[in-house]
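Table S2 (continued). Query chain:
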Amino acid sequence: MSVQLSEDQVRAGFSQLYGENRVVHDIELTNVLEAAEARRRIAGGKSFEKVAQEMSLDRQTAAVGGELPPFTAQSNVPKAIKDAAFSMKIGDISDPLAVGGATHLVKLVNIIPPKIVKYEDVKDSVRELLNEQGIQFAIKNYRNQLAEVALQTMKIQDPVLNAQWKDRLEQQSAKIRDRDSALKELNRERQNATTNPTPTNGAGPAAQPLPERPPATMPGAVAPGGPAASTNPDY
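Corresponding output:
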């Protein structure tokens, strides 16, 4: 089994492996109002990393101060974040960046110089690495598809176990619906508080706690790969 790679893909892989890398810390937020609050805390003396721990919706990167894996100009990173990273000086903090349905603040913390390697000297090894990663990615996708089919078509003959299985699936679906509903309600309350503030002796409305959501990993590797799907209804 092999993956067909063009010369441009191999060169892009070479750039990712041996080109200049940027290291940023990232705070993922719901909207520009939260971005303004994050910048206010930073201006008040808190470090960017501490604010990331307190506010970032991406709880996986928040745990390490918002640090993302190093990436190059060819990496599979959202364009807004990549453009900001390659236009800033070390220590700079970006303006609010719209990425999908979220808003990001990024701080450039390091620039890793490119490695002095000739493309012709390593292109075969780069092609081999990309090919191996492509195969692994294809295998993961195939496993995900099999897991999804198994989940949808699995039949449990024992009536008691079958009832328990359906109940657990429904409980998991209810958790997802409740979480989404709570997040929408919180966003509506924030919007209402912004557009229709209630005077409280000169003070604005009390800050609402930030919702948590499952971690989202931003890829920084040569080839993308998703986590294997789980058939456990508790996740």
